[in-house]
Amino acid sequence: MKRLLVLGGGTAGTMVVNKLRRRLAREHWQITVVDQDDSHMYQPGFLFIPFGGYRPEQVVKPRRRFIPDGVDLVVGEIDRVDSAANTVTLVDGRELGYDYLVIATGTSPRPDQTPGLLGPLWRDGIFDFYTLDGATALARALPAFVGGRLVVHIVDMPIKCPVAPLEFTFLADAYFRHRGMRDRVEIVYATPLPGAFTKPIASAQLGSMLDDRKIIVEPDFLVEHVDEQAKTLVSYDEREIPFDLLVTVPLNMGADYIARSGLGDELNYVPVDKHTFLSKAHGNVFAIGDANNIPTSKAGSVAHFSVDVFADNFVQYVAGRPMTGSFDGHANCFVESGDGRGLLIDFNYDTEPLTGHYPLPGVGPFGLLAENRRNHWGKLAFRPMYWHLLLPGRPIPLPAHMSMAGKHQPDAKE
Amino acid sequence: MPVTTIGTAQVHVDAEGFLTDYDEWSEGLAVQLAAAIGIDLTAAHWKAIRFLREDFKAQGETATIRRVCTLGGIPTKQLFALFPKKPAKKMAYIAGLPKPLGCV
Hints:
heterodimer, A: FAD/NAD(P)-binding domain, 26% strand, B: 104 residues
């Protein structure tokens, strides 16, 4: 009996066990998934909670419900992986052996990594929205905000869902307009990047949307500490940004057990081959989803397209055959822009986000890098798809590999 | 890839002037690249540049500021003093490496 052990029952890990349970014979393969709790969060939903868009119970369900028959769910905190002995030890002392290991424990916001964030102002004048608790606390604080300077801030890249801070900013602008108090709120967007986004065409488009909304961008801002007394962000090059309300995206890091096990880089991400997710250090270890170091967005869409490639590859690999699938870095993200509108971006390792239509050329229904209502409805429609189609590993008619169909080539545009 | 002349050397660069061939770099070239962006290289600069060169050879990617800090042992604050405003980009430029991916 071979043993496949999956660490993490989030978006990537849940899809992996669903797809592989169907592909690996039960009489030959035991599949186990480990997670520290039994709550599966629909993380894209957190964005809407501060603005009253979703209630907490709409974005949390028991993990157990999405783990198929024939897969064991072990609830416990991981202490370390012994990749020489092929075992995983839990904090409570349990030991789990494996023949193949899939690391899918994602990435987490770490406010403890920036001096001054976790002081008395934490979740009072300083909030995060990438956790359910943070988003819920912000939902209570926003209605009480009477005006002043709102600073939306990113500590460092990479972060999961790198467009979410922009979305939050657009939604905050719309929220204060609807409350009739936009003229009493100064909105500042402080980012370690040189502009609104990394890739030039998307950065220009998103940057001009910030300009249109009178949002001040503070680029190349790498925070050193937060001065809580003065309510000010201080950067390494000694620039200061005072705030009345700070919404920060803390440093994102992979799980600490990855560092303890000697499997991670300086941010606890597992170095892997960017096309197959096979560990660069161990021939029986894969890392998939946000937990690995591939150079594309940390996003659910990437996890989804990755698992599509990985599931078939894994079956070939364990049979001693070459892996024929090659992941291209495909990401596909809806970007809320406020007032019931949104954008869509679609890109991969080699092609930056371009304008055009998706998935059908000239038809859409979604517009790439262009604001419209259909993109917003697409984003909302995704939540039930996530629970009912994506997690169970059912086919979704969107190909894993990015297509150039419907995209405008930058040369053709100019 | 365009070819440009730096001092007496012919090197391949990308649209922003970053060297595209690891082996076309030399320490002499680094001095000239640094001068072109207003930096006079000291021992402290060289420690960062040499770390970047070695790390790229091992990893195939340009190190981030955080990596230079944690693995190279140079505090971030010092990197901002040595390479003002945009340390990641400036270090890579002088070290003859691709612009760091930063984020995607």
